[in-house]
Amino acid sequence: MAKKKSEDHSGGDTNDSDYNEEPNFDDPPNFVDNISDEDLLGDMLAQRPSEADGVESVVVVDNIPKVEPVRLEKLKLVINKLFSHCGEIVNVVYPVDEEGKTKGYAFMEYKHAGMAEEAVKKLNNHRLDKNHTFAVNLFTDFQKYENIPEKWEPPTVQSFKVQSDLYNFINDPDGYDQYCVAAETSQNCVQVGFWQNVLPEPNELETRERFTDTFVKWSPLGTYVVTFHKPGVAIWGGSSFQKIQKFPHTGTQFVEFSPCENYLVTYGPTPTGQKIIIWDIRTGAEKRSFVADGMSVLSMFRWSHDDKYVGRMGDNSIHIYETPSFYLLDLKSIKIPGIRGFSWSPTDNVIAYWVEEQNQIPARVTLMEIPKKRETRNKNLFHVADCKLHWQKSGDYLCVKVDRYSKLKKDKKELDVKFLGMFYNFEIFHMREKEVPVDSVEIRELILAFAWEPIGNKFSIIHGEPNSANVSFYEVNKGVKPSLVKRLEKKSCTHLFWSPRGQFIVMANLTMGTFEFVDSTNDYIISASPDHFRASEVEWDPTGRYVVTGVSSWKVKEDTGFNMYTFQGRIIKRTILKNFVQFLWRPRPPTLLSEEKQKDIKKNLKKYYPAFEQKDRLRLTRASKELLEKRSQLRETFMEYRNKRIGEWKEQKSRRVMLRGHVDTDNLETDEVDEEVVEFLVKEEITLLE
């Protein structure tokens, strides 16, 4: 077409300059361009390539060690092992200088952007050693850091928010305890009701629909209650149970509090195992996180009684972390070859751990002071299959249950080990005595349960066959070997539950739902033997005055609910609740009274009796008055209904007389009526007998 166009104009007189000269697109003189590129081409500029495109899955790891080429491979192995827990790594770059030495940072590319974000959350501020702490950021964050304003502006002052009193539950003048009852209303929707155990009937404090997805848990001192949700967990407190703090940890399955309620530990699943996060309760900040291979329903951490230290077991070592930094104590672990378990004293910064037998070296139980790491006592044990550490609540005694064997049988490859001729020892450590003497109690029968008296010097053991076991009670005294004070024979029980105040104990069979209440100060007399079919839990209240047994819908689907008893086994309340999940008494913090003051109160308790008896009489009188008023109201309602029906009956008299042949039968004398019995055949059946 262009050629044809030139041919058409080739023979004419038309000026060819219109086709040969290029058009002039220059701006005229004094022209001002006031249209920005964003206004003119905004939609196209929004789609322009960015420096961060395609690098959403890349992280920058800073503060890594600067090493020579000969040590680079070892460094790569260590770092790759840490970062591979967050997902699949597809590319790694370690920049080096002219001499081949690393520059102190690296780039890691994951398969997905979500893995990179997980690496930042998990490994930022991770302490590799005492000189190197990782700074992990997304590669795309550099734009955020570039846009930091040069002029600093002070943060705005936020108004002070008055929080609810978290300890109002212990200010009740009559000292009534609280409890919560959880019941599932629909799938992943649990209703929780909070009650005060007021006599004669409990008082409902608060009821929350859809309060949690699974269950609830009280903190050790009763300040908070924790609820579980898909995004994480939340803690509630105060007079009306307001939300105090929330902790984002998707899929959290269970939690644990530190003894002083300063920290919360959440456990949640990951694609390769389990993630554990330690949180600061007051600020909601994440203090430290860990990743474990495989899932476990047991706690990984052991806290000291004062929240100063937290420990966990490693490979042939114990890792003790200091709070609030959560760095290793003295920046290194405690190396203990062959360690199998450890536990903190409930009252002192002392740990007890046991080591298995190795190469003709006997097993060993050791007491170690923290932070000095000084061993204060060792006890060698022979022919040991397993050990369990049981601290008494007051920290006065430590019992080590030792499973021992007479013969050991191994296969050729020593992969399968069988213990023959099992018997059991209880090693009792007297923690308050000089040089910590150790006494031993040997039992040749199978051990089913062990429990210390929380306040006192007794412990109890269930031993023998499950259907016909013996329950033995021992007493521990200074300078004397533990003595057997009572043995109850042929008892069908599986668990032991001591009162928090000692003295009383419940022997329970949580398979059959049978219970026996025993008074250890009155020749171990069984005061009551109630039954609660299929009961699977037993809960003492903090004062040791009431016991609750429950049938949870986690175990059965019908006849769920709970029963409440006195400490002597007398039934107080039976509650049938559909889809009942759990019953939990609210814990109380320890008393602020000194031991001398407590002893003085117990000694002069008779002086306080009249005041308490007067309160009880007033309470019963008030309850009786309320009951009488309730009965009077019911009687008035019934009489009103009765009079209404009598009026209707009188209005219908004329119709009754007409229907009865004009005979008034309302006032008929029954003595003038003859009674006649009429019999007639209803049905006849014939059955042929062979």
UniProtKB/TrEMBL annotation:
Region (Disordered): 1-33
Domain RRM positions: 57-141
Keywords from the UniProt entry: Coiled coil, Cytoplasm, Initiation factor, Protein biosynthesis, Repeat, RNA-binding, WD repeat
Cell location: Cytoplasm
Cellular component GO terms, alphabetical: eukaryotic 43S preinitiation complex; eukaryotic 48S preinitiation complex; eukaryotic translation initiation factor 3 complex
Pfam families: eIF2A, RRM_1
Composition bias, Acidic residues: 15-25
Keyword Membrane: no
Biased composition (Basic and acidic residues): 1-11
CDD domains xrefs: RRM_eIF3B
PROSITE patterns: RRM
GO biological process terms, semicolon-separated: formation of cytoplasmic translation initiation complex
MF GO annotations: RNA binding; translation initiation factor activity; translation initiation factor binding
Keyword RNA-binding found: yes
Family (UniProt): Belongs to the eIF-3 subunit B family.
Described purpose of this protein according to its UniProt entry: Component of the eukaryotic translation initiation factor 3 (eIF-3) complex, which is involved in protein synthesis and, together with other initiation factors, stimulates binding of mRNA and methionyl-tRNAi to the 40S ribosome. RNA-binding component of the eukaryotic translation initiation factor 3 (eIF-3) complex, which is involved in protein synthesis of a specialized repertoire of mRNAs and, together with other initiation factors, stimulates binding of mRNA and methionyl-tRNAi to the 40S ribosome. The eIF-3 complex specifically targets and initiates translation of a subset of mRNAs involved in cell proliferation.
HAMAP family with a match to the protein in the record: eIF3b
Record text on subunit structure and interactions: Component of the eukaryotic translation initiation factor 3 (eIF-3) complex. The eIF-3 complex interacts with pix. Interacts with mxt.
Record's protein name: Eukaryotic translation initiation factor 3 subunit B
Organism of this sequence: Drosophila guanche (Fruit fly)
Gene that specifies this protein: eIF3b
